[in-house]
């Protein structure tokens, strides 16, 4: 999803550019821009007191002063897709799961300031102790992918599987990028959470629970159809014909009972608004422009893009791949722009290209900016806890069951 005005030309010294759709608009609970309160999504964007002006020249100094005043009472987490101005104040950076575990490993930190999006702060609240308070600097920082699977839709979908006689042979697996309610659903139904790094392990575990890969058991994979499809086909050896897409906005998911019975992977119709933008044409164009380029993309990209790329992996994988790259090599990266731009700056010995010609950030990740961080830190110093994220205890219990199952998977 692009920020208005985000189509900007890059500094060619740092980066050069080459060049999932829904037929109906999805009801989005996100408040993309502006102020106000969206009661339906519990994502108000009001900030008590004055939010500092973005142009305030004292912002960095204020952030530093507030951070120093809080000391070990606060722990600031920064997701890889956050802005540089926010990452500069992060005590640790990482993907969503790494950050939640880092928060849990700091039980003395009274406040966990999560510079990321809503579902990540929920996971941090679930994994941290009751005495720790998790705050999200802007409550409008949601995730469009996570919002594509609402709990009532998922409950309805499960009813469809029950009616088709397939629910007992189906294990739900949900990506970290889902709400706490979806993780809890997964825990209640004997499934697991996965990350983009361990999705193949999670899928093997799930299939083993229902007769193995050679059996007839199924996985209901939520909410990212692309990660589910790419993992099943590229890493588990299933075919595209083994996959069906369940569209929650169509009766019966838009698939027949027979299709559900025949399928091995039931993919939720969700996608990432950022990674879904990359196309096979982007890959062809960068190869034509830079013949020796290595194309490295995130598995949230479409199957076409992933099959056209040279390498596929999570954000942590992408970071490690560039750390290990031979000097002078050329790379085209298909993931969120803040991370790619940072990697380009950190690796002047490499040529790093962004895979898309239309520069696009994750708009909700970008809602966390320096004014919101300053406002949050100063509020904590003044004794106010702003934008606390608290997961309902029952939901947290079952979500924890699914998260613990992930931690019990081989490799953790
Ligand atoms: S990059 Fe995609 S999956 Fe990540 S927070 Fe943004 S919309 Fe969600």
TrEMBL record:
Matches recorded under HAMAP family: NadA_type3
Cofactor note (record): Binds 1 [4Fe-4S] cluster per subunit.
Pfam families given in the database record: NadA (PF02445)
Substrates-to-products reaction catalysed: iminosuccinate + dihydroxyacetone phosphate = quinolinate + phosphate + 2 H2O + H(+)
Gene: nadA
GO cellular component: cytosol
Organism of this sequence: Cellulomonas flavigena (strain ATCC 482 / DSM 20109 / BCRC 11376 / JCM 18109 / NBRC 3775 / NCIMB 8073 / NRS 134)
Annotated binding of [4Fe-4S] cluster, by residue: 143, 272, 362
Protein task: Catalyzes the condensation of iminoaspartate with dihydroxyacetone phosphate to form quinolinate.
Protein name (Swiss-Prot/TrEMBL): Quinolinate synthase
Principal subcellular localization: cytoplasm
Biological pathway: Cofactor biosynthesis; NAD(+) biosynthesis; quinolinate from iminoaspartate: step 1/1
Keyword Cytoplasm: yes
Residues annotated as binding iminosuccinate: 79, 96, 175-177, 196, 298-300, 315
NCBIfam families linked to this entry: nadA, PRK09375.2-2, PRK09375.2-4
